[in-house]
Structures are given as C-alpha cells and as structure tokens.
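Chain A, query sequence.
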Amino acid sequence: MSIIVKFFVAPDDTSAALTLQDGPGRAFDSLSFGNFDPEEAVIEWESLLAGGSFEELVEAGEPRIVAGQDNDGCVVFAISTRLSAALADAGQSRLRDVAAAWAQLRAEDGEPIDTEITDAIVSDLAGLVGSARRQNQSVYCWVA
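Chain A, predicted structure.
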C-alpha cells in the first residue's frame, strides 16, 4: 500500500520523470493523497468510467510507467488519455457514482475507503485533469 500519492500536471513524460526522487514539489499543480494503491485505482476508475475489464487494461499496459520501478521504490506513471477524457467529460453525478462504485470495490477486496474520501479523490482528480487539458498537458502520478 502506498504511503504518499501525488497526482500532478506536467507537460510531458520527460518532465514528469524528473520528479522521481523528490516528487512533483511546487513546480507542478498537484493533489496529495495517501494509503491506497493508485496504480490499481486508475485501472478501476478507467474500467468504471470508460469500460473494459481490469484484466484488459492491465494487458494493454495500464498504467504506463514513465520512471522508477514497480516495486518498493518511488514510481511515476501516466494517467491514460482515455481515463483523462472520461474524467474531464464526466459530470458531478457520474463522478459520485464512480467514487461509490470504487469504494465498494475496495471494500470487497478488504481495503475499505470512506465514500466521502473516494468522492473527494475522484472529483479532485477530475478537476486536475480538466486543468491539465486546458493547458495542453497531462496528468501523472508519483508514488512513494
């Protein structure tokens, strides 16, 4: 389980990869969360918002790692363009439904997250994605 999760806006993979050691810091717009698996979460969100099974998305290489190792060290990964579009295009009602469904999935896997927290994470991330799209940039996630 991750201790620190930061979603952030960056112009490209190279810029995002530079955050590997110390995180995005103040140079990038970001959101900080903790204590959930963001790699699993983005796959679940994409499945809930845009369709496709968890397994299909994993087989397609989601999420795409841009720096680090997918083990005990820090990692930076990209939010897929498909998930970004789905988050940006979803209304508040749809985002609340996805947050509730995500909370249920986590509870079924023995990792309960309060629905108020899942709602805040999903809606705040949708706002960050919208901001990134207006700037013609992408959203990444740094995990430590």
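The first helix runs from residue 13 to 17. The beta strands are 5-10, 30-33, 64-68, 75-78, 138-143.
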